[in-house]
Amino acid sequence: MEIAIDMGKRRSYVVMEDEGRIVKEGYVETSKESFVQFFGNVSDPKIIVEAGSTLNRVANMLEGYNITVAHPARIKLIAQSVNKTDKIDAHTIMDLYKKDYLPKSYLPPREVRDWRDLCRERSFLVGQRTAVMNKIRYQSYCLGIEFKKFTKKTIRMLKENPKLKLLVDQLESTTNVINEYKSMIENAAETNAYARLIYTIPGVGKVSALGIASEIGDVNRFRSEKNIFAYAGVVPRLYQSGSREWKGHIIKGDTFLKWMLVECVGIHTTHAKDSPITAAYERIGERSGKMKAKIAAARHLLRAIYYMLKRNQNFDSYLRGRRTY
């Protein structure tokens, strides 16, 4: 039995087929109880859903079912339709699946999805804290109050101003939540085999290690280093016309993974002067500038991570056994 679902936040359209024959279809509330009731006594159904903002919630709802996830962008390219409705979308997903034209997307296990959420939520809060700090600096400047860093002495001084006190209280509250997230992530990193290998790289802490590990998921789903480079978005887009070939801008890829790699490169190149990653950064920086050097060094860092995870090696073992690229 195949079940195609066009997901919505409140209700979804479900199409159930058995050997090419439509058994049941219609709208259903997007909840575990409603799905189970709609499916009935179907044993081991194959469920096909489109990846989107509701995927994580739906994957948690349908935990234990055989789920195939369709890549949303590629489906749009394959199945352009003038009339777009939930019903048409559900039938399109079903038809593409039956004809083996469905572009599939990776669905990480529940634990990996939880780690991803944890790391991304912490990153979001860090961004919020930075915004609050910038607001405090601006308001202090307007009030004629100058300071360099947010030290304990500075915090006490800023709290003397009623307007600034509200912002400082928000800063302290956000910092406390970030520290709680950090503690949870570091504890999780100790239990993750990939993260334990990744944080043997100088400049990569436990928080970044778990973030990188959770974004990669299963390293064996990447057939080569080129596949993981494209996934992370650390390679330029390639164009070809006839005998002419040229490179464009860096592709989008997994923006969160790319951001973490670039952040780690900045620390790594400062603390690991003898590393081949640092050597690549300095060599390319002299020729093409710092921005291109950071992306290139991030690619070298990701190459190291890829082979470390593939071979179950720490960073020192990788360096001893690496081949020349």
Question: Can you give keywords for this protein?
Answer:
Nucleotidyltransferase, domain 5; alpha/beta; 325 residues; 14 helices
Biggest pleated sheet: 6 strands, mixed
By secondary-structure content and strand pairing, the structural class works out as alpha/beta
What is the average of the pLDDT values?
88
Radius of gyration: 24 Å
Order of helices and strands: EEEHEHEHHEHHHHHHEEHHHH
Describe the structure.
The protein has 325 residues and is an alpha/beta fold. It has 3 domains: 2-105, 2-Layer Sandwich (Nucleotidyltransferase, domain 5), CATH 3.30.420.40; 110-191; 208-321, no CATH class. The chain has 14 helices and 8 strands. Strand 2 and strand 3 form a beta hairpin. Helix 12 (276-288) packs antiparallel against helix 13 (290-311) and helix 13 packs across helix 14. The mean pLDDT is 88.
In short:
58% of the residues lie in helices and 14% in strands.
SSE layout:
Blueprint (H helix, E strand, L loop, with lengths): L1 E5 L4 E8 L2 E9 L2 H8 L6 E5 L4 H7 L4 E5 L1 H7 L7 H13 L5 E2 L4 H33 L9 H7 L3 H30 L1 H6 L7 H11 L8 H8 L3 E6 L2 E7 L4 H17 L4 H13 L1 H22 L3 H7 L4
Parallel strand pairs: 1-4, 4-5
Antiparallel strand pairs: 1-2, 2-3, 5-6, 7-8
Helix pairs in contact: 5-7, 5-9, 7-9, 9-11, 11-12, 11-13, 12-13, 13-14
